[in-house]
Write a structure and sequence with these properties.
CATH superfamily of the largest domain: Type I PLP-dependent aspartate aminotransferase-like (Major domain)
Radius of gyration: 21 Å
Order of helices and strands: EEEHHHEHEHEHEHEHEEHHEEHEEH
Helix content: 25-40%
Bound molecules: pyridoxal-5'-phosphate
Largest sheet: 7 strands, mixed
CATH class of the largest domain: Alpha Beta
Mean pLDDT: 95
Shape: globular
Distance between the termini: 26 Å
Strand content: 15-25%
Number of domains: 2
Low-confidence stretches: none
Length: about 400
């Protein structure tokens, strides 16, 4: 890999006009134009111009084993060969659920979805139906997907009905007084508290333990559900971050990303009691479907990905994460940026005057030097990486920051 090339953009493809703004997914956005990728293997991806990059994006933390892991790929291909999806259950959902239940000691049942967003929606609906209440308390900033009830960030709410927003109470991470105030004001109508224990938008920094404990206690005292969104943080610990990091047994745990081996997935985990309303035999149960839910490709690839992400792999990746956070922070700091995070997930951002423009400038500078970031600055490691790869990333980021300074 050469260490510095100028950004390679393929000639503009007239078919880009078929996509709003030229993009098939809003979160791909890195500017008016973007390079396109053609393949990935391990920790590397290749773009249309033939440039190889070290992938720290990993499809926004999905690819814990990097790209095209041979056993995960084999499982997906074998599943597709036997029929990619059916309108009936397969043993693949039993196998996958068995793996998840075995990992998280307090969990008894799993219900699948096709994305983290869908799983969050389902968890919120379970809480609302179980408590016969409407309001949700959640942190801001925090990202829980793109469903209306969890989109309370300023600027993100166009098109969301006022009534939906009125049912969401947001509090700042760590603000115990605000949580008390929410329960004082609406305690008998709060269905659930929704927490991400290391919100990416909050800088991937773990929530204060005393705050989490206070929120958990208040929710329980008022009969509200505690829902923990582990769509990113599940990779931090074998039994999930709520259990291993905070000793919590929430009513519902929402997972996704790493549990699907690179294929669409989301899941709600809970006890038999908290998941009771999902029993389709119940006359007053919740309607839940999804044409592709629990499809054998996601189930089988996901199960193999989880098997390879065992205790040893989790510990090794977290150790590499500590090394990377320290090493990359050393580089970033001399340019007024910093690296913060937990486990194998971290955010590279300006220490002051953070802005989307500045992060995008780094995205392009890093790309120019063969490192793929995400425009939000939230990145992660994958199991094929080692310390040499991190040293290589550190050198490339150093060169990227220097290029940025030259350009400004
Ligand atoms: C914490 C968290 N919750 C929910 C979601 C939504 O998941 P998905 O993109 O699979 O819908 C994400 C996605 O990044 C996430 O990070």
């Amino acid at each position: 890999m050469s260490s510095s090339q100028s950004p390679v953009l393929s000639p503009r493809d007239p078919r880009e006009l078929h996509l709003p703004g030229g993009y098939g997914r809003g979160t791909f956005y890195v500017g008016e134009r973007s390079p396109r990728l053609v393949r990935g293997s391990g920790f590397r991806v290749v773009d249309e111009g033939g440039r190889e990059l070290i992938d720290l994006n990993n499809n926004f933390t999905v690819l814990v084993h990097g790209h095209a892991h041979p056993h995960v790929t084999e499982a997906a291909v074998a599943a597709a060969r036997d029929g990619a999806c059916f309108g009936m259950p397969t043993a693949a959902e039993l196998d996958h659920a068995e793996e998840l239940v075995a990992r998280v000691p307090w969990v008894e049942q799993v219900r699948y979805a096709n994305s983290g967003t869908e799983a969050v929606m389902l968890a919120v609906r379970i809480a609302r139906a179980s408590t016969a209440r409407n309001r949700i308390v959640m942190l801001s900033p925090a990202y829980h997907g793109t469903a209306d009830p969890v989109l309370p960030a300023p600027g993100a709410v166009r098109g969301v009905p006022e009534g939906t927003l009125a049912d969401v109470v947001t509090v700042a991470p760590g603000d115990v007084d605000a949580v008390h105030a929410a329960f004082d004001a609406f305690g008998d109508d709060i269905a659930a508290v929704l927490l991400d224990l290391a919100p990416a938008l909050g800088g991937c920094v773990p929530l204060d333990e005393a705050f989490v404990r206070a929120v958990d206690d208040l929710a329980r005292a008022h009969g509200a559900f505690v829902i923990v969104d582990e769509i990113i943080s599940f990779r931090h610990a074998i039994a999930g971050y709520a259990h291993d990091g905070y000793g919590l047994a929430p009513d519902l745990l929402v997972v996704g990303k790493v549990i699907g081996g690179g294929f669409p997935i989301g899941a709600v985990l809970g006890t038999e009691k908290s998941m009771r309303l999902l029993d389709p035999a119940l006359p007053d149960g919740l309607q839940h479907g999804g044409t592709f839910t629990a499809n054998p490709v996601s189930m089988q690839a996901g199960k193999v990905a989880l098997e390879f992400y065992d205790h040893g792999a989790v510990e090794r990746l977290n150790g590499l994460g500590r090394f990377a956070r320290h090493r990359l922070d050393e580089v970033a700091r001399s340019f007024g940026w910093h690296v913060r995070g937990v486990g194998s997930v971290f955010r590279i951002a300006p220490a002051e005057n953070d802005s989307a423009e500045r992060r995008r400038a780094l995205w392009w500078a890093a790309y120019d030097h063969g490192v793929l970031l995400s425009a939000s600055g939230v990145v992660c490691l994958s199991t094929p990486m080692d310390e040499r790869v991190i040293e290589d990333v550190a050198d490339r980021l150093q060169a990227g920051f220097e290029t940025m300074e030259d350009r400004s």
